[in-house]
Amino acid sequence: MKGLPPVVITAFVLVAGFALCAVQFPNIASTRVVGNLLTDNAFLGIVATGMTFVIISGGIDLSVGSVIGFTTVFVALAIERWGVPPLVAFVAILVLSAGFGAAMGAIIHVFDLPPFIVTLAGMFLARGASFLLSTESVPITAPVYSTVSDFALRMPGGGRLTAVAIIMIVIVIGGALLLHLTRFGANVYALGGSRTTASLMGVAVGKMTVKIYMLSSLLAGIAGIVFSFYTSAGYSLSAVGVELDTIAAVVIGGTLLTGGQGSVIGTFLGVLIQGMIQTYINFDGTLSSWWTKIATGVLLFAFIALQQGLVALARRPVAKRAGAAS
Amino acid sequence: MTALLPRRGLAQILALIVILAVDRVVSPQFFDLRLQDGRLFGSLIDVLNRGTPVALLSLGMVLVIATRGIDLSVGAVMAICGAIAASLADSHGLPVVLAAALGAGLICGLWNGFLVAVLGMQPIVATLILMVAGRGIAQLITEGRIVTFSSPDLVWLGNGSVLGLPVPVAIALGMLILTGAVVRGSALGLLIEATGGNARASELAGVGTRAMILSVYVWCGVCAALAGVIAAADIMGADANNAGLWLELDAILAVVIGGTSLFGGRFSLVLAVLGALIIQTMNTGILLSGYPPEFNLLVKAAVVLAVLLLQSPKLSGFAGIMARLRGTKP
Q1: Which residues 222-281 of chain B have a CB within 8 Å of chain A?
Q2: Where would one find coiled-coil regions in this protein (chain A) (predicted)?
Q3: Which domains are present in chain A?
């Protein structure tokens, strides 16, 4: 790939954007604001890490928002109504969500179906199941929750690095190592490059597909637990539409939606860019929250157009493509 | 017009009959129709009326999917066009309102089509942009409020009646006939299928694939605009946050239930609309049965999976049975 890799451009946009914000509102450049930004976007960062794997492998997972919603309700009910110890509830929900992802991956592979529609069904299923559990918001009062919420590392300048932010950073680093340094990660790229080639090279395509969706749902489950720490409640309508924010963050982070290219670090930067836009709008006070959506849309367009240009450059000797395939 | 009613609609028609029968068991008055003030009333009419937005969306969506594309932005386009119609309704006449709303839908479709056909973006990604930004734009138009109106002309579009049928149903029927006449009355439908089947081969064979792709996204935008106007007229207001929310998924679902493959190629307008009606009949049935509407999503998930598995190339056994039923070979 000639020229700048997309991640560098994402990083540049983040730094330049942050600098612009800091010029206008000097208070933004404080560890307090940065700490809050990390805390507010912790669940998004975790779920986006999983989505990065799925998208690099050439798939998509629309069910993550619903899995987060289901997790918050399940955890809240298990702890508050059924009297299950929090740790047991966490393990149970993680096993459940991993199994859910594995099932979706298995259906996608065995029946050779488009991931878009299979995970769409998964999205309906998980959201419907959380409605069945409870349609009202269930507050969580377990002592673990206040302990975790209160825990924070002090940063110089008065900022607080909260527990959920630390969990997110650990998962992002773990995800990056898994993607870039292990055989599993290499196989993910191989699948996204070309399924047939990967299979001919000896990658167990079926097993990989199951594992990738399992990872995505597992991380969505962890994100759900983090979300419940963040809000101290379980609500079946929480995290509606998060799958869109997640996909947007992954794309802004320079991952190619056709698969085969991308990085977890880029995704992390994409999450931070979205958080930064939100923070700027909060600081400004006069802008309405819908500007976040428009700004995200514009950024999405800019990054996709950029990638399209890079891909076109790389493929120029080959004939032009008509009617892109999904 | 025989091409409009393909032989392969058997499964969908059977499904609709089964669901209708279940609805009849759940609610004994389901098939009752009565004429009041020159308009038919009853659960069946209600199904048609409520199903109109998704039916309209699926009319555009089926053409897009036939070219191997997908349009995620239709819900957001509905919100934009509903917002435009609602903000203009009390100060302008109906023609201006309609022209503005449909024009906006056309521009949205043109934008999507430009990204896909000219810039060569993946359809999912290209339309994701408008899906994310569109709701923001709609909120910009309504300034974050729920805009209400009382213009009788526009309200008539949502609640009036024509020849005993609710106006939205008549509009959807008209759009189905119009789209069918244009697409199947000419070679256009065949060219669209060719584009979806193999874009490169079609282009070499002289099909203007770019023009095809561009025009189906434009048509999809116009259909979404019409659905948005009807949805706004129905509630006499525009809610940028909730108008058309997740309807893109229902529309895609309707098309898939209608037997059009997400991998492009052959499509059927009638079956897509039938798919929309199947979804709505299910929704209404669940409402009538007294189960909480939360069950909707679970039932929908089960139906999507069932339809997917039936269409799966790996389940050739079922395809064989269906082929024997139809008396042809798979």
Answers
A1: 240, 249, 252-253, 256, 262-263
A2: none
A3: 6-314 (1.10.3470)
